Amino acid sequence: AQKVTQAQTEISVVEKEDVTLDCVYETRDTTYYLFWYKQPPSGELVFLIRRNSFDEQNEISGRYSWNFQKSTSSFNFTITASQVVDSAVYFCALSAGNQGGKLIFGQGTELSVKP
Amino acid sequence: DVKVTQSSRYLVKRTGEKVFLECVQDMDHENMFWYRQDPGLGLRLIYFSYDVKMKEKGDIPEGYSVSREKKERFSLILESASTNQTSMYLCASSATGGYYGYTFGSGTRLTVV
Fold first, then answer.
1. Do the Cβ atoms of A2 and A97 come closer than 8 Å?
2. Rounded to the nearest 5°, which phi and psi values hold at B84?
3. How far is the C-alpha of B5 from the C-alpha of A108, rounded, in Å?
4. pLDDT digits over B38-78, tens only?
5. Chain B residues touching A106 at Cβ < 8 A
6. For residues B19 and B13, is the Cβ–Cβ distance under 8 A?
7. What number is the average pLDDT over the span A3-24?
8. For a pLDDT cut of 70, what percent of chain A falls above it?
9. Please, what is the end-to-end C-alpha distance for chain A in angstroms?
10. Interface test with B, best of A45, A105, A110 (most B CBs within 10 A)
């Protein structure tokens, strides 16, 4: 069975704090893809990053960074020096096996960044 | 700029009405999906389609049907709207294969009164 768990339902931080959003996944497939999406208050989910199972290199994009560890089946997302505009719901997702491109989503983490 | 377009941003319908939610994509994607999003429940898959005229049930298909007569259009139908179908509805599309992930529409917030 495939599953994505985002244990943190809500996180609240003060602007400029660093924050890490956790994502743990389960799959028996050796080839899979992991994603993060951002859903701001406007409602549309926006793609942030994709990682394939053969590439464990961490990635940094500006204030955003992602840590992929197969040993712990985790794909965590860190925002450095958070800003109010980072306030959103963040979803981690998994695509694996013969799902034909269907994504398995975590429950989402609602991040609130206060000024 | 590639797009998934949902026909309405906000809708208010009466109980018992037949409701159509339309989704159109311009990326020639094979796959299309309908989700509903409710507080505390995340994204729940209603129906999806891998090709024209094909459909498969997701996790919560009860009370819904879908239609895909053309590759670019995927319609969600509430046969007889009920108040427990008040929700945010999200459409997404993707190319075949796990690599691509989804492109989402901006969502339709449906209220059934």
1. yes
2. -75, 5
3. 23
4. 988 899 999 999 999 999 999 999 999 999 999 999 999 99
5. 42
6. yes
7. 97
8. 97
9. 41
10. A45
